[in-house]
Amino acid sequence: MIQRLTEMNLPHFPLLNDKEMMQNLHAAKEGDTVARERLINCNLKLIFNLVQRFSHRGYEMEDLFQIGTIGLIKAIDKFDFSYGVKFSTYAVPMIIGEIRRFLRDDHPVKVPRSYKELVYKVNRARDELSATLGREATIGEIATNIGVDREDIVAALEAIQSPTSIYDTLYQDDSDPIFVLDQLSEDKGLDPSWLEKIALNEVLDKLSEREKRVLMMRFFEDKTQSQIASLLNLSQVQISRIERAALLRIRGLSQIKDSSSKDSTDLD
């Protein structure tokens, strides 16, 4: 009997605090294979949690977990201490990007028939409701109209669209768009500790289009700074500065978010 990958049978290793993480990263950069192995093992839960959101794609979780591990290893190898951000801030988009690249390249993408049928119903209901309401229908209104859960609609739309960036819009919900990143943040099965430093919508709004584009190419298209510089007609030094500034801004805004949450908790 084949044992399926679950959190229960996932190897358990103690989590590293920030200081330990940096110490092991420095050691791994110097060729310490023990430190490198420790970094991989102590981040298995991070990979597992991120892989969960791709469970509906028709692939074995074990396969996606292996792909996610490749993304983690790339993050360990490419992490730059000058960014001044936590390793998890850097690793999360690298892991997601590696999985998305696999899904994108492994054609045809397996989309369940039930999702295709649901998207057909959603599109038909959206057109009818939009005509009646005189505006774009929301997911909530469509869900009520066709009698399905809002979450099922989002999952089906995501599977069909197969977005390749955390900045892609899955659907327009009321006055605000729903991004791929929103679905990651709203995943009930994702440990909040892993979400603290992942860019939120407020953070994305603060990034320039150039910063978003550079981060997307670095994390999701696995391009080097030199390759990006050539594509954007900029120097490698300029790309490095743009990338570092964007990551520092994410870090700063995340800290503000954390501080605000703490202040709110203290007042309760």
Write the topology of this structure:
Elements: H1 18-29, H2 33-41, H3 44-51, H4 61-78, H5 87-105, H6 113-133, H7 139-146, H8 150-161, E1 169-173, E2 176-179, H9 180-186, H10 192-195, H11 201-206, H12 209-219, H13 225-232, H14 236-267
Antiparallel strand pairs: 1-2
Tell me the Rg in angstroms.
20 Å
Number of helices: 14
* Relative helix content: 55-70%
Q: Give the tally of structural domains.
A: 2
Q: What is the second-level CATH architecture of the largest domain?
A: Up-down Bundle
- SSE run: HHHHHHHHEEHHHHHH
Main beta sheet strand tally, sense and closure: 2 strands, antiparallel
Shape: globular
Beta-strand proportion: under 5%
Structural class computed from helices and strand pairing: mainly alpha
Give the rounded overall mean pLDDT.
73
Strand order of the largest sheet: 1-2
Q: How many extended strands?
A: 2
Give the C-level CATH assignment of the largest domain.
Mainly Alpha
* CATH T-level fold name of the largest domain: Butyryl-CoA Dehydrogenase, subunit A, domain 3
End-to-end Cα distance, whole Å, is: 50 Å
Unreliable spans are: 162-202, 256-268
In summary, what is this structure?
This protein is mainly alpha-helical and 268 residues long. It has helices spanning 18-29, 33-41, 44-51, 61-78, 87-105, 113-133, 139-146, 150-161, 180-186, 192-195, 201-206, 209-219, 225-232, 236-267; strands at residues 169-173, 176-179.
Could you characterize the architecture of this molecule?
- Residues 63-76, 224-250 form the RNA polymerase sigma-70 domain.
- Strands 1-2 form a two-stranded antiparallel ribbon.
- It folds into two domains: 18-108 and 187-267, Butyryl-CoA Dehydrogenase, subunit A, domain 3, CATH 1.20.140; 113-186, Winged helix-like DNA-binding domain superfamily/Winged helix DNA-binding domain (Arc Repressor Mutant, subunit A, Orthogonal Bundle).
- It is built from 14 helices and two strands.
- The radius of gyration is 20 Å and the shape is globular.
- The longest helix has 32 residues, at 236-267.
- With 268 residues, the chain is mainly alpha-helical.
